[in-house]
């Protein structure tokens, strides 16, 4: 399997993230970015893909400041901050992520897959409320999400 190495920067963040993605995800992401640069409509608003054997990432197209692609590693590995059953939301204007110890299926799974089917011109639904592993609620705006990283097992739809 061909692996591509990406370095991505988001508006308001000094440090770029570095992720490795497979050929199919790479092709889909690059086609979308090229279409957006060409002013074409109907570009996915978010991309959801695997970045390791156990982690997945959700990337907001409108929040990408730059994207650099390489067939070889391009710098140090990026290690996201996650709790045991975690998901980390990197929100616009915030230096540190909102990290949740999230256990169980449901809204997170539906939200990630729903965002991955929205197009760039669509209005992203305004907000969501999730509960962490202790049952404590957290409420935030989805249009503020620049990117998120989560354990893949948390977003696998049950058949």
* Mean pLDDT over the full residue set: 81
What fraction strand? 35-45%
Low-confidence stretches: none
Radius of gyration: 15 Å
The count of strands amounts to: 10
For the record, the count of structural domains works out to 2
Main pleated sheet: 5 strands, antiparallel
Helix content: 10-25%
Distance between the termini: 26 Å
**Which term fits the overall shape?**
globular
Give the SSE order as H and E letters.
EEHEEEEEHEEE
Could you explain how this protein is built, in words?
The protein has 159 residues and is of the alpha+beta class. 15% of the residues lie in helices and 37% in strands. A 5-stranded antiparallel sheet has the order 3-4-10-6-7, covered by helices on one side. A 3-stranded antiparallel sheet has the order 2-1-5. A two-stranded antiparallel ribbon has the order 8-9. The longest helix is centred in the first third of the chain and has 15 residues. The radius of gyration is 15 Å and the shape is globular. 23% of the residues are buried. The mean pLDDT is 81.
């Amino acid at each position: 399997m061909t692996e591509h190495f990406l370095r991505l920067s988001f508006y308001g963040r000094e440090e770029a993230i570095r992720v490795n993605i497979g050929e199919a995800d790479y092709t889909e992401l690059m086609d979308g970015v090229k279409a957006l640069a060409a002013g074409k409509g109907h570009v996915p608003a978010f991309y959801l893909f695997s970045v390791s054997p156990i982690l997945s990432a959700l990337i907001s197209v409108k929040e990408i400041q730059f994207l650099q692609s390489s067939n070889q590693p391009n710098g140090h590995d990026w290690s996201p901050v996650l709790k045991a059953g975690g998901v980390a939301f990197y929100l616009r204007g915030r230096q540190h992520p909102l990290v949740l110890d999230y256990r169980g299926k449901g809204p997170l799974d539906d939200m990630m897959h729903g965002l991955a089917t929205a197009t760039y011109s669509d209005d992203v639904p305004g907000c969501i409320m999730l509960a962490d592993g202790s049952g404590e609620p957290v409420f935030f705006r989805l249009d503020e999400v620049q990117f998120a990283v989560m354990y893949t097992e948390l977003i696998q739809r049950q058949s």
